[in-house]
Write a structure and sequence with these properties.
alpha/beta, 2 domains, six-stranded mixed β-sheet, four-stranded antiparallel β-sheet, globular, binds adenosine-5'-diphosphate, binds magnesium ion
Length: about 325
């Protein structure tokens, strides 16, 4: 665990200052501000349409903002596009490789795009092929690779110029679990070697692995911090129920506590009990289940998962606007 004082010594790498983007009347990103220091892994989480891609496209100076500014390694996205391109790698949500080119040809192509000197390019390509375990596939056409391998190649191409910060937009979307795990191992070892990682994801279990989590909702930041900070920010606790008839128990509990606080995860049920809720005690849960004839339930208090936290943060958010 990093201490606060250690964190302070690390230089600021991303500074997002009231960044906004509107498309006509739609506000896709709404006055977003946050800071990222060198060496962090940051997870940008939010449902579809939350504004994740728009935010990343602005930070990578692909898309001009409607308001605010952001600085990468001290350079403004408004005026220092080239300086920013030299410092960042960007794996976009769309397939950015050339399908008809081989793995090797793609790496050479991106090396040239980023102006990597020929003398250095070959060595970097060798390192990246090793690192991404794509060596045996170097003569394969990119379009013939599996989803997981395509992502590793996209990542390698984005790393060819040794960027300080790597931006990845939902890099593991649609990738099988084994490849997802491999991909994460690569990201982690990259981070250990000093690269700062900023990724968006729709998977909350992935976001939990990030040192800092930014939760975006309708273009605005709903919460930002480490998992533990987010845990402390919600007043309440989670009760986990395991029993032989989880679906029946789930329906009973949902009837009493409401759909927004009771979730079924396979054979486990989580009930988020807000500190302010009157019937919110383990005893109440026990009573409801006993009355429903469920006597085999194990009921324990557990630390809230990210899913629980967001459920709590989102509670009533959408209704407020009706
Ligand atoms: N080029 C565009 N023109 C108009 N609306 C857009 C454009 N890009 C994104 N949007 C809208 O902005 C909102 C945020 O989109 P996006 O950033 O893609 O969200 P996410 O990546 O979180 O799914 C959505 O409502 C989307 O429809
Ligand atoms: Mg997106």
């Amino acid at each position: 665990m990093e201490s606060v004082s250690e964190k302070k010594e690390k230089p600021l790498l991303i500074e997002c200052d009231n960044l906004s983007k509107s498309f006509g009347r739609l506000v896709a990103v709404d006055q977003v501000s946050f800071k990222v220091h060198e060496g962090e892994i940051v997870g940008l989480v939010g449902p579809d349409g939350a504004g994740k891609t728009t935010l990343i496209r602005m930070l990578t100076s692909v898309l001009p903002p409607s308001g605010g500014n952001a600085f990468i390694d001290g350079f403004s996205i408004l005026s220092d596009e080239q300086k920013i391109q030299d410092r960042i790698g960007y794996v976009s949500q769309q397939f950015g490789l050339y399908g008809d080119l081989t793995v090797m040809e793609n790496l050479h192509f991106f090396g040239d795009v980023f102006g990597v000197e020929n003398s250095e390019k070959n060595q970097r390509i060798e390192e990246l092929l090793e690192f991404s375990q794509l060596k045996d596939f170097k003569d394969f056409q990119a379009e013939k690779l599996s989803g997981g391998m395509k992502q590793k190649l996209s990542l390698s191409c984005a790393l060819i110029h040794r960027p300080k910060v790597l931006f990845l937009d939902e890099p593991t979307n649609g990738v099988d679990p084994v490849s997802r795990r491999d991909f994460w191992n690569i990201l982690r070892s990259l981070n250990e070697r000093g690269t700062t990682v900023f990724l968006s994801t729709a998977y909350l279990d992935e976001a939990e692995r990030c040192g800092k989590i930014i939760f975006l909702h309708k273009g605005g930041i709903l919460a930002c911090g480490t998992l533990n900070q987010l845990r402390r920010s919600v007043a309440g606790n989670v009760v986990e129920i395991k029993c032989k008839t989880p679906r029946i128990a789930f329906l009973k509990l949902r009837n009493l506590f409401g759909t927004d606080v009771v979730k079924l995860f396979g054979n486990r049920i989580h009930v988020f009990l807000f500190a302010s809720d009157t019937p919110g005690t383990i005893e109440t849960v026990e009573k409801i289940l006993t009355e429903a004839g469920i006597v085999d339930a194990s009921i324990t208090s557990v630390a809230p998962t990210l899913e629980d936290i967001f459920m709590a943060l989102m509670r009533g958010k959408d209704d407020d606007e009706v």
